[in-house]
Design a protein that fits this description.
There is one protein chain. By secondary structure, the protein is mainly alpha-helical. The protein has one domain (13-166): Alpha Horseshoe (Serine Threonine Protein Phosphatase 5, Tetratricopeptide repeat), CATH 1.25.40.10. It contains nine helices and no strands. The chain is globular.
Length: 167
């Protein structure tokens, strides 16, 4: 099922990813947190030290209030490394923080196309749809995120909020 995921980087191997995915479903919170951390590490390190350094540089620019420079760096990164899912995800976060929900949504969709189990991007899609008032689509995105991370309370809460908007 997740075999197509291997195209996103040689560091990912079926057994390790499947083990982490199973750990996300474990009732033990510590096990889930460790698996979540491990997956983020894999995603951030997909393009090695160079890719990680550029992601960290974009984060430092954001923290320094240099939003335009951070956006330019992330745009250059996704242009030069279009299969780097986490670069798309970081830019999606930046766009969301700016209230540019359609741009953020498009980048989240690109992340999920590259990495179908990226629970962060699935959650981000839900947030974008909710911000756009597209509650049924938001619920679908949050449900997809819950398929990967069934104990994620944020997704459960957002489904309830979006459902309330529909009634």
């Amino acid at each position: 099922m997740w075999h197509s995921l291997l195209s996103i980087g040689s560091i990912m191997d079926d057994a390790a990813i499947n083990s982490l995915l199973e750990a996300l479903k474990n009732p033990d919170e510590a096990i889930r947190e460790e698996a979540t951390h491990e997956l983020w590490q894999i995603w951030f390190n997909q393009k090695g030290v160079h890719g990680l350094n550029l992601l960290e540089q974009s984060q430092m620019l954001l923290q320094a209030g240099k939003v335009n420079e951070a956006e330019a760096l992330l745009t250059e990164l996704v242009t030069n490394l279009p299969d780097f899912a986490e670069a798309w995800n970081r830019r999606a976060v930046l766009y969301y923080m700016q209230g540019r929900h359609r741009h953020s949504l498009a980048d989240c969709q690109q992340v999920v196309a590259l990495n179908p189990i990226h629970f962060g991007a699935l959650h981000g899609m839900g947030l974008c749809y909710a911000a756009l008032g597209e509650y049924a689509l938001a619920i679908q995105a949050f449900r997809r995120a819950l398929e990967v991370q069934p104990y994620a309370l944020a997704n459960q809460r957002m489904i309830l909020e979006c459902t309330a908007h529909l009634s």
